[in-house]
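Figure 3 (text version): structure tokens given as input.
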């Protein structure tokens, strides 16, 4: 049935209008091709189940939620032309554009959004990172099998209107609908794919400003080529004609990514801190995001560090000021684990929260024999552990300070192991470490986007704690709740923050309008460039 309908639409659209956007008066031109290397694999482009940052980046080009975030992070219309809220921001109603359609011409309806969200919430789907959806009334209970579909606070009023009832008032709810889990899914097409939805171009139906060039322009572990969608009729028409997403392990053509951006064969790449000044000297535009925090992570699956009192010993014997004094360059001390990009009610979250790191406690050393005996550890002193870190001067300097602090307090000699970037992140993902100096970044600017990083299903897994997981999904979405979550992580002695760090991106000097942000990842919708 679906194929028959599709053929009718294709035959009735024998002449396709080629959308040509005018050149811009500022000298930058539209209709250009852009190229970017994804550093993570893409195995599925199903918005309801996608896991990696690379998958989310591509999905944000191919799909569009009820709302979209613009290049400044502001909420703008997407598939919905407008929305309204009741007085206490517990009920939101979104109205779709009358001509909204999928990229094969199928009309889009409110049921497409209902079906997509309910698919994500259905426990049989096995989707992760659902915390933003749990703001919807009874959504978390339905996901846990404790409520029926009818209990969930989503109501399709008619083809053009959909209503959400929330667990608590949250005026920024429209911004959440730009997230991948809120994106639509055509019920009929999904059933037509018979379990293959999102695994290749022929089994993916998109509604965003871009579409696949053909059904065959997604080659696993090689590339994904997308082009401006001819059927898209929303307000966010793509400026580029084409975007080429390349998978990192395809070959060594772009082994030196910064050199490739300088030459113009790539348009943007993530940048190491040590390369920032070099990029600027070569007239690159450098985008800097205050989206990360650098700290010490302890592996709770390690035989020694699985014991919370042992972790407490390590965290409480860090001489914080001595470690921070090792920095020759200017840094911003982290007063908690949440980075500066995270907002609450249009204010920086960090300004609303107290210091959140384990306090120094030199007296805890006297408790070590009793702590070790309680866990049947046959040692008079805390056993030695190794700290892994990236092999750069900043990370090694900070890690050396941590090790020296332990050496002086714990009557033992602790080890430092610098690693290449690839090996470091492989060891982190495989949980093949005891302690690691690592950088934890946020995937957005809402508190949930950061606190999700510490759930048991996060990739990589920083902490596995069912109590924390339950707290995250069953809270009341208030600033007090988020403070409790941050304090829980502090009191588990899993992550000790030192300073706020940054992500840097180098952009080719001929390009303009490429977005790099915690909310959007890398996005080319508004990109232009000189010939």
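Below: residues designed for each position.
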């Amino acid at each position: 049935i679906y194929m028959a309908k599709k053929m009718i639409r294709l035959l009735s659209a024998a002449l396709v209008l080629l959308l040509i956007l005018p050149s811009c008066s500022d000298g930058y031109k539209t209709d250009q091709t852009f190229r970017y290397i994804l550093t993570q694999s893409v195995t599925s482009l199903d918005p309801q189940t996608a896991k990696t940052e690379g998958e989310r980046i591509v999905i944000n080009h191919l799909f569009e939620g009820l709302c979209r975030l613009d290049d400044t992070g502001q909420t703008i219309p997407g598939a919905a032309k407008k929305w309204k809220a009741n007085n206490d921001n517990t009920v939101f109603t979104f109205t779709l554009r009358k001509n909204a359609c999928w990229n094969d011409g199928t009309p889009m309806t409110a049921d497409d959004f209902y079906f997509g969200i309910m698919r994500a919430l259905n426990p049989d789907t096995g989707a992760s990172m659902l915390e933003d959806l749990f703001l919807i009334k009874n959504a978390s209970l339905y996901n846990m099998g404790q409520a029926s579909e009818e209990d969930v606070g989503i109501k399709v009023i008619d083809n053009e209107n959909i209503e959400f009832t929330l667990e608590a008032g949250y005026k920024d709810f429209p911004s959440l609908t730009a997230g991948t889990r809120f994106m639509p899914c055509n019920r009929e097409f999904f059933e037509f794919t018979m379990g293959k939805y999102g695994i290749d171009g022929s089994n993916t139906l998109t509604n965003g400003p871009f579409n696949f060039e053909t059904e065959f322009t997604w080659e696993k572990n090689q590339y994904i080529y997308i082009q401006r969608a001819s059927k898209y009729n929303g307000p966010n028409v793509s400026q580029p004609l084409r975007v080429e997403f390349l998978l990192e392990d395809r070959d060594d053509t772009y082994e030196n990514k910064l050199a490739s951006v300088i030459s113009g064969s790539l348009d943007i790449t993530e940048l190491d801190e040590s390369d920032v000044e070099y990029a600027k000297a070569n007239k690159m535009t450098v985008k800097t995001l205050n989206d990360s925090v650098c700290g010490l992570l302890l592996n709770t699956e390690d035989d020694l560090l699985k014991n919370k009192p042992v972790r407490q010993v390590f965290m409480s014997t860090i001489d914080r000021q001595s470690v921070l004094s090792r920095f020759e360059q200017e840094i911003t001390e982290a007063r908690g684990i949440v980075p500066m990009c995270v907002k609450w009610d249009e204010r920086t979250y960090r300004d609303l929260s107290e210091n959140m790191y384990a306090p120094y406690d030199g007296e805890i050393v006297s408790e070590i024999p009793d702590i070790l005996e309680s866990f049947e550890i046959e040692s008079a002193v805390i056993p030695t552990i190794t700290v892994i870190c990236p092999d750069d001067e900043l990370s090694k300097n900070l890690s050396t300070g941590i090790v020296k602090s332990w050496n002086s307090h714990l009557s033992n000699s602790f080890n430092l192991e610098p690693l290449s970037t690839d090996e470091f992140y492989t060891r982190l993902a495989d949980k093949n470490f005891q302690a690691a100096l690592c950088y934890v970044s946020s995937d957005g600017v809402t508190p949930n986007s950061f606190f999700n990083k510490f759930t048991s299903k996060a990739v990589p897994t920083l902490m596995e704690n069912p109590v924390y997981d339950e707290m995250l999904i069953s809270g009341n979405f208030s600033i007090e709740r988020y403070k409790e979550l941050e304090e829980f992580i502090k009191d588990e002695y899993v992550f000790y923050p030192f300073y706020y760090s940054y992500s840097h991106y180098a952009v080719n000097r001929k390009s303009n309008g490429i977005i790099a942000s915690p909310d959007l990842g890398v996005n080319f919708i508004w990109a232009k460039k000189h010939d």
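The chain has 16 helices and 24 strands.
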